[in-house]
Write a structure and sequence with these properties.
Oligomer: single chain
Distance between the termini: 63 Å
Structural class: alpha/beta
Strand content: 15-25%
Largest sheet: 7 strands, mixed
Radius of gyration: 25 Å
Helix content: 25-40%
Shape: globular
Number of helices: 22
């Protein structure tokens, strides 16, 4: 690499709030194996531009990155990706700024027009990003600028498939995170494969766009050995594993689990359709708890079959197949089922709306959760690009329209542009049905989660994980002043993954962070958990909290209910 300018260290961030896609973790491991010092910020809780600027300044001061990669996978993060790029440019004009991911690949022409972006990676990012970091003059799959400012789009030379993705696996987890909080934000995603072979009318990541943006015509499973490496790397780093792929068989997954004990882990599996019982049985045998999400396209069988007949929807289960699968799942006490579908798909009618409600009610009667949302506009999706073909209108179609929509959202607003019917009466009926189903689903979920308590209820602290860190380790030294960096933080995780970080010794007047329960509040929460270390009645606990934490009965009840709702306390 004589004469090349190596860009290291590297900082990889997501373009949205919350947990970034697992892609940046695969990329960071790949870069480290290639000799590049790479770090990730996996979780981003900033909502305002002021918070974003403050966080990025601290990150840049700590990492001193020569290159920052922004993962723009999801289209609803495009405005925020541009905000990140502009802010980084202001903080340090010498940082090389790269964006990549599905949405970046789809909108590369539009993104190239922004001078806060230096490079756009098209498709799979491992080899192109490493080439950029190593200073290669012509990195593959990249859009760069010619001397006259016009885009130089190189052909897609690097396309991952079943035979050339062996270098893609998780590694260097102890090294790539900048704080313990960030590391514990990892939700356990594993990608058994990549790509999609379907052309569903509502999806921007369907087969046609995969081919255009990634050069990948067919989906593929990674090798067992490669996915096994993922499990070996992360099994001690996370409490659950999450999957989203249709081609994984029981035999394949069992091969990837070889050598690791998952009997105390949870699993969340998003399935495109209904699985074979062999896979269901294997999941239930392997994990302590399994949450399975079955995607059936939409809840009207008539509407579902019409879309499949026209080649507009993946192969979905019939109602009978779905109900048989649910019945088979019921023999596993450690497995629960959620059924998901999209409302407001084309070819809706009064008859299909009645079918939707009937199936939802049937699924709820079997104690399954329901995932249900209106049809959203996704860039590149057939329904978004050609809504008139389905007698619909889209609230956004072009890059500019999408960006303007997201620019106008208030902090915390997660709405997206929607597709709606031209026929006002039909649109009103679809919306009314959607709201009714939402209410049914929400009421059922609340009922499943509700734990009625009274003075005689015996509760016990069931938090399976309690860890202690110094505040500087937990939040990262770039976020914590030296005067409080050595203070202790107790991190508690509930049975369903809810986290709570308590720092009783950190006075909010000296330092404050929205993710912490500090001072007296933190002390009260830890004291309450300690009271229930063994099965204890609520009445007894209220009395003890009055003596130990000076809480009146009403306040003690509130704290107990808060911990019950978070699943830190459970009926004994």
């Amino acid at each position: 690499m004589h004469g090349r300018r190596v860009l290291s260290p590297v900082l990889l961030v997501g373009a949205g709030t919350g947990e970034a896609t697992c892609g940046i973790l695969y990329l960071a491991g790949y870069l480290r194996r290639g000799g590049i010092e790479a770090f990730v910020r996996l979780y981003d809780g900033d909502e305002t531009e002021e918070e974003m600027s403050r966080s990025l300044e601290a990150l840049v001061a700590r990492v001193r990155p020569k290159l920052v990669g922004i993962s723009l996978k999801w289209f609803h993060h495009v405005h925020r990706a541009l905000q990140l790029a502009r802010t980084l440019r202001e903080i340090d004009p010498d940082i090389r700024i790269v964006v990549g991911g599905n949405t970046a690949s789809y909108w590369w022409r539009e993104l190239h027009a922004f001078d806060c972006i230096d490079h756009i990676v098209l498709g799979d990012g491992e080899r192109p990003l490493l080439a950029l970091c190593q200073g290669e003059p012509s990195p593959p799959n990249c859009v760069t600028r010619k001397p006259d400012g016009t885009p130089n789009r190189l052909p897609l030379e690097y396309v991952q498939g079943a035979t050339n993705s062996e270098d893609v696996y998780y590694s260097h987890f102890p090294d790539i995170f900048l704080s313990q909080q960030d590391r514990h934000a990892f939700s356990g995603w594993v990608a058994p494969g990549k790509g999609c072979g379907e052309n569903c009318l509502y999806c921007g990541g369907a087969r046609g766009n995969q081919k255009a943006a990634f050069g990948r015509a067919k989906p593929f499973l990674r090798s067992e050995e490669s996915v096994r490496r993922d499990h070996q790397e992360i099994v001690n780093q996370t409490w659950q594993l999450r999957y989203d792929f249709s081609g994984s068989s029981a035999e394949f997954l069992q091969g990837t689990w070889a050598g690791v004990d998952l009997s105390r882990h949870s699993c969340m599996y998003f399935l495109w359709g209904v699985p074979r019982m062999e896979l269901i049985d294997a999941l239930a045998r392997t994990f302590e708890h399994v949450h399975m999400v079955l995607d059936i396209g939409c809840f009207s069988e008539q509407q579902r079959h019409e879309q499949m007949r026209r080649g507009l929807l993946k192969q979905c289960a019939s109602d009978q197949q779905l109900l048989e699968t649910i019945d088979g799942c019921r023999r596993h006490k450690n497995l629960d089922v959620e059924v998901s579908g999209i409302a407001g798909l084309p070819f809706a009618s009064a008859a299909t709306l009645k079918e939707e409600v009937r199936l939802v009610e049937r699924v709820i009667s079997l104690d399954c959760l329901v995932g249900y949302q209106r049809l959203e506009a996704q860039p590149g999706a057939l329904a978004t690009e050609h809504p008139a073909r389905f007698d619909m209108v889209s609230e956004a179609r072009t890059f500019t329209e999408f960006v303007e929509y997201f620019e106008q959202r208030e902090p915390g607003d997660v709405s997206v542009p929607m597709l709606r019917f031209r026929d006002a009466a039909l649109e009103k009926a679809v919306q009314r049905t959607s709201e009714h189903v939402d209410a049914l689903a929400r009421k059922h979920e609340e009922k499943k989660q509700r734990i009625p308590i009274n003075g005689r209820t015996r509760l016990v602290n069931t938090a399976p994980s309690t860890l202690r860190f110094k505040l500087g380790e937990w939040l990262g030294p770039h976020r914590v002043p030296a005067k409080v960096a050595q203070e202790q933080v107790t991190v508690v995780r509930s049975v369903n993954g809810t986290g709570m970080a308590c720092a009783p010794s950190v006075n909010p007047q000296r330092f404050t962070d929205p993710t912490l329960d500090q001072g007296e509040d933190g002390k009260i929460l830890l004291t309450t958990l300690a009271v229930f270390e063994r099965p204890t009645t609520v009445a007894s606990a209220v009395s003890q909290l009055g003596a130990k934490a000076k809480l009146d009965p009403g306040s003690a009840h509130e704290v107990i209910e808060h911990l019950v709702n978070g699943r830190f306390l459970q009926p004994a």
